[in-house]
Amino acid sequence: MRILWRLYGYSARLLKTKLFRTAASNTSFPEVWLLLVQYFERLPGFFWVVQRNSFFTMPEILENKADLELYSPHPEVRGMTTLDRAAFKRTIVVPVLKVKKEVINKLLKSLKHITLHRPGLKRVIDDPKDEDRLVLLDPHKISAEYSLGESEQEILKQFNIDPQVSKYNLELTYDNFKTEEILRAVLPVGQDVTSGFTRIGHIAHLNLRDHQLPYKHLIGQVIIDKNPGITCSVNKINIIDNTYRNFQMEVLAGEANMITKTRENNITYEFDFSKVYWNSRLSTEHGRIIELLKPGDVLFDVFAGVGPFAIPAAKKKCSVFANDLNPESYKWLLHNCKLNKVDKNIKNFNMDGRDFLLGPVKEELTKELPLLTKERKNTLHIVMNLPALAIKFLDVFKHLLDGKPCSTDLLPTVHCYSFSKHDSPAKDVQEWAEVFLGTSLEGRCSTHLVRSVAPNKEMMCISFQIPAEVLFKKQCTHEESPVEPASKRLRPNEDSPEEKLTSLKD
Ligand SMILES: C[S@@+](CC[C@H](N)C(=O)[O-])C[C@H]1O[C@@H](n2cnc3c(N)ncnc32)[C@H](O)[C@@H]1O
Question: Sheet harboring 249-254: ordered strands across?
Fold first, then answer.
């Protein structure tokens, strides 16, 4: 019985430390031990054992502050819709080490792993009592008993510093809290506070959810405050479903200047973000296509936007033909050509993609293809990045050119983008390309997953050389008849190509 009694006494002491309290709540520490401790704590003799425990140097922190709450702003900010920075102020108690100023720098290096790191906060402060310094420590990073671990004690010994940890009332202000801590304190408890945004030059582009809308101006201002260089925050207020693929946006905070300058793959672009399409998430894809090009190649960019394929291709000394229907995109495309000093390598157009393919592209292919030989083998590429609709434009290639089919390896390569909500997006996109080309691409195309746009919606790129039987007008009647694509045999209840494509729009 006595042994058991001691065992319970020992476990109770351990449980009173922060380490064990955390462990008990986070792991499957037997609940029965906790009950036993609660029971025995009520006995005066047991209480004495616990109080005597030398681990209790800072009981108020151990007892009263849950880890998560330690770095939260003042609770009265909950529900705030107009940012009042002063209201976030809060005093917390943190451990400090008293250190002679002569050794401070060396010591800081050795104790970096346990010092307090907060935005805008100094780790070392003057000791108001004398010439010494106080090093602020992170309560989460020092051992449970609120004393230093063996290795830290060893370091202090070398510097002849007293390992005694004392407490310090530290005032945290709005500047010392992180965006997420601020938003978690303001928004209703339990609601998602995701504060992610895309940066386009000085603009932060947010995509707020409905429950965040009452706090939209505050969220926008916090993003500006916490991200140097951002002076304006905007929220998307409609889905992209208009012709020019731009979206309406509302300025949440900061200056309402939408003309921005940004860099992608080492190239600078300027544009009016409210009037053109720009998506920073496509930078890898832009780079991937540019990697395929060699100097001297020809690029036709059917839906060019402000130039993220066209300009780097021209920089790489390719001949570029770029087109966009949106007059604003066209204006900024011209501007970016000048800005990047490639206006001599690019011919720009402002017309519908179909007209561009039937006009300038056809004309150029008619001129270029006969000149290409096995020796002079510049490749021709046609980029079609309008994922909701581009696949529908592929029928333009059917019998686009007169004359004799050129050698297969000289045929232009199309990179056509498409959304897919299908379980097998690669197969889906290939089938639709086959529908509009009127031939099978089996074994002569590749598909690439560009990005997941939504949980069940992928952006794909299908690349293929336009089959000669598609591109050239038939020379004689006994030519090969193209294999009827599997996709043409629509399954029962399947949408028509038109309906399916409309449903794929974002
Ligand atoms: C998805 S954006 C792609 C822009 C750019 N290529 C990029 O990768 O960021 C599609 C572009 O196609 C343009 N566009 C939409 N319909 C068009 C059409 N029928 N003909 C030509 N351009 C069109 C839009 O204005 C927009 O700039």
Answer: 198-200, 203-206, 232-236, 249-254
